[in-house]
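ESCALATION

Customer reports they have been waiting on this structure for their group meeting. Please prioritize. Original submission:
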Amino acid sequence: MSCLLRFFSHAFLIVCLLPALGFGQGAPQFDGKWTLIPEKSSEIGLYRTLSLEIQQKGTIVILTQKWGTSRSFEERLTLETGGKSNRVPVTNRVFPTNVFMGLSEPVGDSRQIIALWEENGSVLKLEERSHIRASQGKTPVLAVHVYELSGDKLTYTIKRSTRKTGPPIRYVLKRAGTKHAYFMKLEDNWKIDGLLPEQAFLLSLQGVANLGAPRVYFIYPENWAFTYTPSVFDFYKEKKDFTFRQLRTAEQALNSLKQHVRGYVVWDKSVRTSLIVAFTAAGLEKAVVVSEDLIPMVEKVGLKPIEDFRGKFAGQTDAQIYAWAYNHYWKRCNKELIIWMGGEHGKVMKPGVADWGIYNKAFFNDLSTRESDTEEYALARRL
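Update from on-call: job pushed to the front of the queue and completed.
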């Protein structure tokens, strides 16, 4: 009987201790690198951004915080969790959350930090006791740092005993390397002898680069027919947690996305229709379209020519050019859609759907669908 009681006593003790033992470790989802979602976070003076890396080793948590990018402040904390007080020497005066407040950390002092796992390991709480140096001298401060997992995001909040009013300090982070893309603002110039060659190149780059993942987004000019591009951009940031880096030149865009491009197709600026055919070839070959003057830029990053239409279609009608394109490309093109490049004519082209057509390996054309244009109409019906 005594052995049986002893067995149940030990079992009861183990069950009671299990929740307490769980406090020593956090959820494995904490581990890894995290980057800031600026639109959902408090403003960070000077540094503007924040990244975290969290590692767990038993009851030890290693927390690396980096404020800023090129100009930055980084701190690495190795903390024993479970209620033990960790002494952390102050080796840098920087007060990173707001460097413009006239506050500094007293170098030579130390901070006492207690690290606790809460809510079954989904919350890491740091209770930090330290001093802050201001114009009035040193002031004791209690700061509570809370890192909380919520789905695929991490929320970091700071509460200080010295902060009695104002909005909470709150940073929302996502997994590093996820939902990050580039964006660029396109110019309102679509003339062949103006910026069309560069704009067409960018649209082809977008179509190729976005294969497999959303990597680059364009905001069109205010008077463009697609008036919603700024609103969609805000939607991706505010609702879908995308972060964006701005590209300002075609060369910068190419250098950032060149790994997704196989080669280039040259179109002839003296034959407008050659650009439309080049879009078809670009989609099939994962290539960008360039005019002659852009060849040095693409060859600089190692791209090789796939097609060269300079002089190829000189003196030909659109019907003849598209008949050639049909014979060479139609079999490989997507039969679920076709791109008709209508709208502008002459020395202007606004190929706003070119990226989508390239992405889908569509056949491009601007054939007439008037019965009186017999040759073009016949090919259009065939398509």
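Sent to customer with the following note: The chain has two domains: 23-175, 180-382.
Escalation resolved.
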